[in-house]
Amino acid sequence: MANLMLRAIFAIAIGYFLGSIPSGLIVTNKLGVDVRKVGSGKTGATNVLRSSGLKPALIVALADVVKGLLPTFFAMHFIASSAALGSFSAWTPWVAGATGLAAIAGHNYPIYVGFKGGRGVATTAGVAFGISWQTTLISAVFFFAPIVKTRYVSLGSMVGAAALPLIELVFLLTHLFGAQPAYVLTLAVAAAAIIISHKDNIDRIRRGVERKIGEKVSPKATA
């Protein structure tokens, strides 16, 4: 049990501190922009896209995905793998899931920059890919379809996030791709966090004033 607890704490700590790396802030600062002072004030790829362009946004999105993927993958296959936990191997999915959620929390509330980060969409995608690439690829359809239809990235983010635990639940019930209750719960918590963080976007969508993809904001604009 002591081995399990130590490995779990270690994995979760790595998840949080890695997730806290402010990718969006680092990239935009090199361009002379403080992404926290433009658009939504968030440090994620969508706000970087609006303030700094496509290339910086793609770099940030990739970095944020990796922040979720790496700790989840290493928790699952190394730090808290079945071999590492021995008789407590049933806890491997729970430790991996907790590590992924810690990475998302780190992205949203980064310790390095005053706990003001993003909404965790790309980092959640990385966690989901570490848990089940099959689930992630299917959910991508639910992410991109609303964006293509409406040009609202926020809507695609919420729909794609909501699809993740539902798809994983289907896999669990049909015994496919190694789905686990821990993974369903992990993705459900992550999806809830994303939807809650978009409450202002939901209000703007209802009022028809939500920014659409391709609309830039001035670096002097405030959130």
What would you note in describing this structure?
This protein is 70% helix and 0% strand. It contains 11 helices and no strands. Helix 1 runs antiparallel to helix 4, helix 7 runs antiparallel to helix 8 and helix 8 packs antiparallel against helix 9 (153-173). It has one domain (2-207). By secondary structure, the chain is mostly helical. The termini are far apart. The model has no long low-confidence stretch (mean pLDDT 94).
How helical, in percent, are the residues? 55-70%
Taking the alpha carbons of the first and last residues, their distance comes to 47 Å
Main β-sheet, in a few words? none
List unreliable stretches of 5+ residues.
none
Total number of beta strands: 0
What is the CA-atom radius of gyration, in angstroms? 18 Å
**Helix count, per DSSP?**
11
The percent range for strand residues is under 5%
Report the average pLDDT across residues: 94
Number of domains: 1
Structural class: mainly alpha
Order of helices and strands: HHHHHHHHHHH
Q: Looking at the structure, what is the overall shape?
A: globular
